[in-house]
Design goal:
Elements lengths: L1 H12 L1 H30 L2 H36 L4 H37 L6 H8 L2 H16 L4 H27 L7 H26 L13 H38 L4 H19 L3 H20 L3 H38 L2 H10 L3 H16 L3 H21 L1 H4 L1 H28 L2
Length: about 450
């Protein structure tokens, strides 16, 4: 009995396990906060306003993919490889990565701020995005700083820092928008759409400041992080060699997502809607219906975060039967969750649309999207299993095919069937993705 208690205490003290649990909990809380934040925005902005906000999201994703996503993983890998004794080497990789990331993000800030009118007019086809893009661009360097520092703390097995910073970012974002909303009410004025971007900027500021303070505390002595000799061209080459493939993959995905987001309102106009109606329908989808459908992913995403290291561990131990059991159990439970949520939404779509969003169109989209639930929730978990097996490139290729399927529906089905054509595309794209993931798992595990 005492031996078992000692073993349990040892597991709890394990930084990998405790860090994963912390990240899982913070991610779950963040998604819950984000879900209710979406409901809040849906009630204070009209549908068209939500559609305009949704148009700038792909620009943010694309910038993050280019400036920070790959470098975060490269910093984590190189800092972890240095070990606990090579302190100067660890900081060298961190600051070399920061120089690259901050340089790229600053250039993107200047470019988007300067050419925001042209991007809004000719790329997004919506002039009202200009001020949103300009405010959002100011947060790019802060987001890059925050992301790179997270990579450093992951390598140090201090996952509590990224976990807390994630909550701080979301908390400050929501609170600042709420303060602005309260102030606008006191002035009998309407809250502008730019308030969302201001909240995003404040959230990034708060998380970046928190991460920097924790870095200073981690250094032990302040002058140890001021040595410019730590930065070298060789470290830059090593980081870029690791970051480039991942960044390229994410940039490709972001470009396709951006193309989908931009072209959807245009194809809706071709189906016979006005520009205002197209943005309204897209706003209902991006700000109301889809966040609700994706809400259970807070649970499956958290479970996937815990499943990934387990799969890696079992693969290293060559326990293929345990991986097979995990795959079968995952498919069963996720599909069961999806079916349960699908039937719930089919029955209560009208009530949910009226109670949460006060919108009849939202209820229609929720009911239509409910059929994709079993496949949406399953794909995230199957991706986590393949990532744990080291098949990242394969999952990237499958995601590209799924997104390509959706794009075909945007270009060819939406002009004919209207927004229903896009919903068909989401369903077909998810079914295709799940089939490919299951076939891959069948090849690598079940019949291996």
């Amino acid at each position: 009995m005492q031996k078992n208690q000692i073993q349990i205490a040892g597991y709890l003290k394990n930084p990998l396990l405790s860090g994963t649990v912390l990240l899982t909990l913070s991610g779950f809380l963040t998604k819950i906060i984000g879900f209710f934040y979406k409901i809040f925005l849906a009630r204070i902005f009209h549908e068209e306003g939500l559609g305009i906000i949704g148009l700038i999201s792909p620009i943010m994703m694309l910038t993050h993919s280019l400036c920070a996503a790959g470098l975060q993983n490269a910093i984590t890998r190189q800092v972890a490889a240095c070990g606990p004794t090579k302190k100067d080497q660890r900081y060298g990789y961190l600051y070399t990565g920061l120089i690259f990331s901050l340089t790229l993000s600053t250039l993107m800030t200047f470019a988007i701020f300067q050419y925001a009118p042209a991007i809004s007019t000719y790329f997004l086809h919506e002039k009202r995005c200009t001020i949103l893009l300009r405010i959002t661009s100011l947060s790019f360097p802060l987001a890059s700083l925050h992301t790179c520092l997270n990579g450093y703390f992951y390598a140090q097995k201090k996952a509590s820092v990224p976990a807390i910073s994630l909550l701080i970012e979301q908390g400050f974002r929501v609170f600042s928008v709420y303060v602005l909303y309260t102030f606008s009410l006191s002035q009998h004025a309407k809250l502008p759409l730019a308030a969302c971007c201001v909240g995003m900027f404040i959230g990034e500021c708060a998380s970046a400041v928190f991460s920097c303070i924790l870095l200073l505390c981690d250094s032990g002595r302040q002058n140890s992080i001021l040595k410019t000799s730590m930065v070298s061209l060789q470290k830059g080459k090593e980081l870029l060699s690791l970051a480039a493939p991942l960044s390229l993959n994410r940039v490709c995905m972001s470009l396709l997502s951006t193309l989908e987001t931009i072209q959807l309102p245009q194809m809706l106009v071709k189906s016979g809607l006005t520009s205002s109606q197209a943005l309204s329908i897209y706003g209902i989808f991006s700000g109301m219906a889809f966040p609700l459908i994706m809400f259970p992913c807070a649970l499956t995403g958290s479970a996937g975060s815990l499943l990934l290291p387990y799969i890696s561990e079992q693969q290293a131990a060559n326990h293929k039967h345990r991986i097979k059991q995990a795959v079968i159990l995952t498919i069963f439970l996720c599909f069961l969750l999806g079916l349960t949520f699908m039937f719930f939404l089919l029955v209560f779509a009208d009530t949910i649309g009226s109670l949460l969003f006060h919108n009849a169109e939202a209820a229609k989209q929720i009911r239509a999207l409910s059929f994709a639930c079993p496949f949406l929730y399953l794909s995230g978990m199957l991706n986590s299993i393949l990532h744990g097996l080291g098949k990242n490139t394969l999952t990237f290729f499958f995601s590209l095919l799924s997104l390509g399927c959706r794009l075909l529906f945007v270009f060819f089905a939406v002009p004919i069937f209207g927004f229903a054509g896009y919903l068909y595309g989401i369903l077909c794209g998810q079914i295709l993705l799940d089939l490919l993931l299951i076939l891959a798992l069948r090849k690598f595990i079940i019949y291996n």
